[in-house]
Write a structure and sequence with these properties.
single chain; 208 residues; Rossmann fold; 33% helix; globular
Length: 208
Amino acid sequence: MSSVWLSRALEESRARGFLGPGPIEPHIEHARGFLRAWQQHSPAPPDRFLDLGSGGGLPGFFLLTEWSTPGVLLDSMVRRTAFLEEALSWPDAPSTGSVVTARAEDASRDLALTESFDLVTARSFGPPAVTAECSTRLLKVGGLLIISEPPHDSQAADRWPAAGVAQFGFESLGVWRDASGFHVLRKVSDTPEQFPRRSGVPSKKPLF
């Protein structure tokens, strides 16, 4: 992987206020947790992944440097996606990354993105019900949604009730713990036509 490019990209992301202050190494190690959570379920990289609410580029940038697989970095804020596109144009950047500027509710209805990913990652996208609803139409049946959980949350499993995630076509595979916790959901059935609801509704009226 291009560690020089990744370090430069994350340092610039931090300088622009897209990552928190402090050293970038803890951010990289946290992103590595998404990789390890995936590897608990599949020895091979996904054919295609999407980073939901990519923001400052994590875990998307890290996964692009680890896998020679296409990855889409999705965010609704133009300022952030402009930076993501800029960083991916620098020398030694991964060649398999692309950027989409859109709300997840709208992007998931785009035929180029609908049900076309084996993996969706979410670092700090939103509450569980919002993340599940906004990601389900992006995933293939059998694909995984991996979500970073709040630190030291002993009730992480309770945040993802079985009946709640089932309405979006998911089953919970539980929490995988590394230095951080990651909840893993598998998409087990087709997305009901009504999901996701129109832009903004999932966050205003979460279903669990």
